[in-house]
Design goal:
The chain has 2 helices and 4 strands. The chain is an alpha+beta fold and about 110 residues long. The chain has one domain: Glutaredoxin, CATH 3.40.30. The structure holds FE2/S2 (inorganic) cluster (FES).
Length: about 110
């Protein structure tokens, strides 16, 4: 039995620009994660749904990246304006939003 109904990991990995590699942290994912956490709490699901910061999820070029369990939905290329839709459809609901879906997870 799971401790949480849903568990969401948002990549906050931030690389130095000099590395030449993309990183989700450059998309302000710490701010996005905090906002999503507040939205979940405001929806009355703060104890059932966990929103956690993650290190690199291996999807750097498709970021910002998140994964939603237990469905195992991997999303990339989302912004603050998309959080409400992701919350309603895929976190509170179980529907997949195709335009954010990371289909090829090989970097
Ligand atoms: S830096 Fe976010 S997936 Fe790698």
């Amino acid at each position: 039995m799971s401790l949480y109904k849903k568990h969401v990991f948002v990549c906050e990995n931030l690389r130095d620009v000099a590395s030449g590699r993309a990183s989700c942290g450059s998309h302000q994912t710490a701010k996005l994660r905090k906002k999503l956490k507040e939205m979940v709490k405001a929806a009355g699901n703060g104890k059932q749904i966990r929103i956690n910061a993650a290190g690199c999820l291996g999807q750097c070029s498709k970021g910002p990246a998140m994964v939603i369990y237990p469905q195992g939905i991997w999303y990339g290329n989302f912004g603050e304006e998309d959080l409400e839709e992701i919350l309603q459809e895929s976190i509170l609901g179980d529907r997949v939003i195709d335009r954010f879906l990371i289909k090829d997870k090989m970097e």
